[in-house]
Write a structure and sequence with these properties.
This is NAD-dependent epimerase. By secondary structure, this protein is of the alpha/beta class. The chain contains 13 helices and 14 strands. The chain has helices at residues 11-22, 39-48, 53-56, 83-91, 107-110, 112-132, 167-186, 208-217, 237-249, 253-257, 275-286, 310-316, 324-338; strands at 2-6, 26-31, 63-64, 71-75, 95-98, 137-143, 190-195, 198-199, 222-225, 231-232, 235-236, 262-267, 273-274, 292-295. The strands form four sheets. Strands 3-4-2-1-5-6-7-12 form an eight-stranded mixed beta sheet, with helices on both faces. The chain starts with a strand and ends with a helix.
Length: 340
């Protein structure tokens, strides 16, 4: 297939592009390479895909990978209502994997406009292009944050999610509603994936895994919110991407035949890990005990997440299963190598 992967310089988008290329698909990666976090890491990911930094810095310019003829890259904002349709018209994609978004719960308190631009206007443009250029399937990233103040554990896609507690979560829930509307009105198969706390090598610097490791290595105290009384369904990057690729390659034909064009799945490890246990694994791999600065819970944070993945198992025979010990070791090993 020919697949558009948005957010290709991002953590999940980079891995997804890499796996799809290795499986023989033709991939066009799109990213605006914004400065929400260190752009050098984004360019380094693209370099792993064979894209030269100079070419990746040019807007509206398709650059071909030197390593893989099946990968090309364009720097572009999803909000660009003129350039995005031109890209769709020129490339004739079969399916779209939309992983681009303004990420981060806490940053949405500081810069709400960027979330509206990327996550709402940008997603609408993706939907319009899917509608106008006969895209066979749209797979897009949602988030476990949509569950907000939900008290029922584990979180199920059957649960009510009308109580988000961050603007980021609200935009992700809005994406699901927008996709439902387009599936209903224009018969576009859409699949939303609620990711649960993704971590692993090449991960985002604003995520706990990276922040804790970086602080410990540099002999700085780590910030432990809610005084450590937090639990997360930490999901290793390979497990996330394995689910994304399986759904891209094998859309549920039975569901589509029954005109059930809209679907949302949880992708998580189906296991809730205490934050202090997670930190302990990092300490073990760094052979250093962290100095912990215990702090109250941050606005927009939830105390616990845990994914019910029964639908994913039923429809795709797929379940993430990488252990925390394996995943943390893989990240720490990468961190040591990347930052020497």
């Amino acid at each position: 297939m020919k697949i558009l992967v948005t957010g290709a310089a991002g953590f999940i988008g980079f891995y997804t592009s890499k796996v799809l290329i290795n499986k023989g698909h033709t991939v066009v990666g799109l990213d605006n390479i914004n400065d929400y976090y260190d752009i050098n890491l984004k360019y380094a990911r693209l370099n792993e895909l064979g894209i030269d930094r100079d070419n990746a810095s040019i807007f509206n310019n398709i650059s071909k990978s030197k390593k893989e003829v099946t990968f090309s890259f364009i720097r572009l904002n999803l909000e660009d209502r003129e350039a995005l349709p031109k890209l769709f018209k020129g490339e004739n994609f079969d399916v779209v994997c939309n992983l681009a978004a303004q990420a981060g719960v806490r940053y949405s308190l500081e810069n709400p406009e960027s979330y509206v631009d990327s996550n709402l206007v940008g997603f609408l443009n993706i939907l319009e292009c899917c509608r106008n250029f006969s895209i066979k399937h749209l797979v897009y990233a949602s988030s476990s944050s949509v569950y907000g103040l939900n008290k029922k554990i584990p979180f199920s896609t059957d649960d009510n999610v009308d109580h988000p507690i961050s603007l980021y979560a609200a935009t992700k829930k809005s994406n699901e509603l927008m996709a439902h509307t387009y599936s209903h009105l224009f018969k576009i198969p859409t699949t939303g994936l609620r990711f649960f706390t993704v971590y692993g090598p090449w991960g985002r610097p604003d995520m706990a895994m990276f922040l804790f490791t970086d602080a410990i290595v540099n002999n700085k105290p780590i910030k432990v919110f809610n005084y450590g009384k937090m639990e997360r369904d930490f999901t290793y990057i390979d497990d996330i991407v394995g689910g994304v690729v399986r759904i891209l390659e094998h859309p549920n034909k039975e569901r589509i035949e029954q005109n059930d064009l809209y679907k949302v799945y949880n992708i998580g490890n189906n296991n809730s890990v205490k934050l202090l246990d997670f930190i302990k694994e990092i300490e073990i791999n760094l052979e250093t005990e962290a100095e912990k600065n215990m702090l109250p819970i941050q606005p927009g944070d939830v105390e616990r997440t845990w994914a019910n993945v029964d639908d994913l198992i039923h429809d795709y025979d797929y379940k993430p299963n990488t252990s925390i010990s394996h995943g943390v070791k893989a990240f720490v090993d990468w961190y040591k190598t990347y930052y020497k």
